[in-house]
Each structure stands twice: as structure tokens, then as C-alpha cells.
């Protein structure tokens, strides 16, 4: 019997186990330096794989649908940060100030790729457009997220020295591996796709390693002593409210602008997602070690909430009557499978 789609997946349980391990057995002393070096290598490898998986053909094929892609990018990098600021007076009292900084960091992250495409396919949406939009969001996020983080999330770190240091780290640890992977995509893209099951543990293992290192540093600094249970529950509420507002907003915008139902599905699932795979390693580069734990906690919670909610939403979309466009979407899904 298969697991219901609204329940947490194995990777979520692995994340919880990693946080628990870091809480009970945090890396200290010489172990801290070892994991820092290992994490730096893992982040470079992770973004190299992201670049190698980014298909230029999919991006070029979807460029003609520019209105849809522009709306998705605007939802990801404009609507989300705007909501973070607008909702702050109503929601910030539910969490600690540091956790709400993590919420703002969540708001400037790029969209996911795999889950956005998977839910669009499940809901019989415009799959080629979803591939293009999600891929473009990942590519743009490598550049836009650090800039928005410096401007909106931690403006007190925007002095020239820290900004230059941050840009240097971003270029070396994120942009260079990402672009190297993408430049090599014509040569290794097929290999990466064929061996996705083998590479997936490397991808997920890199994230788990970053989470362990981040939470180890945060635990040593007293994360759990400073985070009351009420703040954790409040963070769940904040993530739920943020996701609900974005889902309603993307749906209304898609309908108001006259997009088809298939395009609406793509806009909803690509415009409402935030990437755990990009957010965790980026936080390791962009924030001091002691801050990374509180920064990624909102991302981890939002990730699971968006998966459970969108699984239910995709099933509702999929039950709509067949139309010629929906039949074409099903054919595209079978072709891409």
C-alpha cells in the first residue's frame, strides 16, 4: 500500500533525524572545522548538479510563454517578499525576532524544480511551461536571492566590506559550480538524468550535511534554550498563513489575467513554492554559522507544509473534466515521464 501523498516523505524524516542528532550530538572542536570543510565541498557539488540538471532545451522551448514566466518570477521574488513585510505586524508576534528574519529569508528564495513540475503534472497543467519556469527560477535565484537577502533580510550587513565578502563567497561556492555544471550540461546532462536514482542520495545527502552543520552551530549557541515551544507553534501558523495567501493570490492573478486552467495550475504550483534544496546551502554561505539554524528552520517547515497542501490541491485540479488542452497536458506528461 503506497503512502498517502499528504504524509511526510522519507527525506522529511531524515531531516528531522538530522536535527535531532545535531541537537543531541552537535559538532564541536575539531569536528566543527571538519564539517565546515566537508559542507563547503558538498554545497559546491550540489550546485554543480543543479547546473547540470538545468536543460537549456526546456528553457528555450518555454521562452515564448513569457507572460506566464514573468508572473511566476514576480510571485517568487516580488510577491513573497512584499507579503513578508506586509504581514509582519500581524505575524511577527507569533515568533521570535530571529525566526521572523528566517521567514523573510524564506520569502526571497527561488522556487523548487522537482515538486513544482511533479504537482503540475499530477494536476494536468502546462508541464513544458512548468519546466521552463521552475528552471529559470533556480537560475535567477542564484543571483537574485543573495541580492535580496543583503537588501531586505539583513540590511545591517550591507556595508561595503561585508557585501564584497558575501559576493565573493556566493560567486565561488554557488555561481561558479552552478555555471560549470550548466556549461557541461550538453556533455553530462544525459548521464545525470539516467543516473538520477544514484545521484539523488548525493543531492539529499548534501542538504542533510548542511542541516547538521547549521543546527550544530545553532545548538552550541543555545538555539533550543532561546526558542520556546510557543514560538515553534507560531512559526507553523506563520508558514501556513503565508502559503495560503500566496496560493489564493496566484490563483486570482492567473484568472484575472486570462490564463487557461492549465497555465493557472503551472502559475499556482511554480509561483507558490520555495526551494529547500537551494535555501539551506545558500543560508550556509550568506549567514554566520550561529544564524544558519534559525534561518533554515522556517524553510524546512514551509517545505513540508507546501508539499502536503499542494498534494491535496493537485488532486482536486486533476478531478476536473477533460478538455482538449487537458488531454494535451496528459500526453505531454506521458512523454516527459
UniProtKB/TrEMBL annotation:
TM ranges: 37-54, 66-87, 99-119, 131-154, 166-184, 205-224, 230-254
Superkingdom field: Bacteria
Coiled coil: none
Entry GO CC: plasma membrane
Family annotation (InterPro entries): Na+/solute_symporter_sf (IPR038770), Put_Na-Bile_cotransptr (IPR016833)
Entry keywords, A to Z: Membrane, Transmembrane, Transmembrane helix
UniProt xrefs under Pfam families: SBF_like
NAD keyword on record: no
Stretch forming the signal peptide: none
Name used for this protein in its record: Bile acid:sodium symporter
Organism of origin: Xylophilus rhododendri
